[in-house]
């Protein structure tokens, strides 16, 4: 069963409600039941240079293997699809991202991914954040209303890697194949 559908964008109470970094960090602390500062090899990216969108794109393009769950499909990431030639990826789109691929958009994305080893799944429920395991790096993403990344947590902490990997597998096991495989 997918995790709690509380969004990290609204999961922090108090004066930092609109701060994507505080929201994402608070969400992860509650989910992992640990203080963020106790996670080894972990950093938060909020921009402006590099922007979270640019950093996410760079991490994806540099990876060999990706598993992920995305509640939004950033246009910046879609524009990078041509640069993922050797990438093996399994990505589950949830909620609004899944609905965005209904109709003609599905065939456009499918044609962009035709020569790749990327499988896209659709899951009807929402996911609380974007979650990706890029090789051995866990990435958690907060998105704005337009679907662009506003904050990233990038980590090699084993507990975060394990949680992201397991969560992505649970979503994938409950999803339908949309493109590929």
Characterize this entry briefly.
The protein is of the alpha+beta class. The protein contains six helices and eight strands, in the order H-E-H-E-H-E-H-H-E-E-E-E-H-E.
In this structure, how is the largest beta sheet organized?
A: 8 strands, mixed
Largest sheet, spatial ordering of strands: 1-7-6-5-2-3-4-8
The rounded distance between the terminal residues' Cα atoms is 23 Å
The chain-level mean pLDDT equals 83
Shape type: globular
Structural class: alpha+beta
Residues in helices, as a percent range: 25-40%
Rg result: 15 Å
β content, as a range? 25-35%
Per DSSP, the total helix count is 6
**Poorly predicted sequence stretches spanning 5 or more consecutive residues:** 3-16
Instruction: Give the tally of β-strands.
Output: 8
**Order of helices and strands, N to C?**
HEHEHEHHEEEEHE
What does it look like?
The protein is α+β, with helices and mostly antiparallel strands. Helix content is about 35%, strand content about 25%. Strand 6 (about 135-145) and strand 7 (about 150-155) form a beta hairpin. The protein is globular.
